[in-house]
Amino acid sequence: MKKVMISLAFGLLATAVIAQSGNSVKSEVAFRDAKVEIAYKNYLQLKDALVASKTDAAKEAAGKLKTSLASVKEGKNAMTEATKISSATSLDEIRKTFASLSTEMKTVVKADQLSKGELYLEYCPMANNNTGAYWLSNEKEIRNPYFGDKMLKCGSVKETIH
Question: pTM (2 decimals)?
Fold first, then answer.
């Protein structure tokens, strides 16, 4: 009887853990080029700041991204966009520029190869005045950087990058 109760308790605990995790499982990623990996991590900090609608944190992350892209072979255009974000004056301006930055970062990450994990190219059709915009993420769960908590789950995964 004691073994049955212990097994039942572990089963309930496991079910609770799985239920809490939902779709927010993050893929741990690694790139062949450590410089690209650092730039991508800085990009994620910027994306997360936009999800949280934190202007100053976004500008700070963009500054770090700009610095890390300086030594990335394919990073010149992305560095230009990160520079614009780091000197932007409003959250709306940052989000607009983030769309073009994300396009450039897609080029950067695809030029290098992942040595571990997978990335997701996600898309919101309502971003940029309904013209749509993409972003990169290492989790399938949509956390929209273009609208933050106003439309946090708006979007879908368009491509998985291995």
Answer: 0.84
pLDDT tens, 72-118?
A: 999 999 999 999 999 999 999 999 999 999 999 999 999 998 999 99
Here the tokens at position 96 are 């607009």
Chain Cα centroid distance, residue 85: 16
Identify the domain containing residue 102 by its residue range.
28-161
- Judge contact between 161 and 118, C-beta under 8 A: yes
Total tally of structural domains belonging to the chain: 1
Q: Is residue 148 within 8 Å of residue 54, measured between CB atoms?
A: no
Indicate whether 21 belongs to any domain.
no
Burial of 144: CB neighbours in 10 Å, binned 0-12, 13-18, 19+: buried
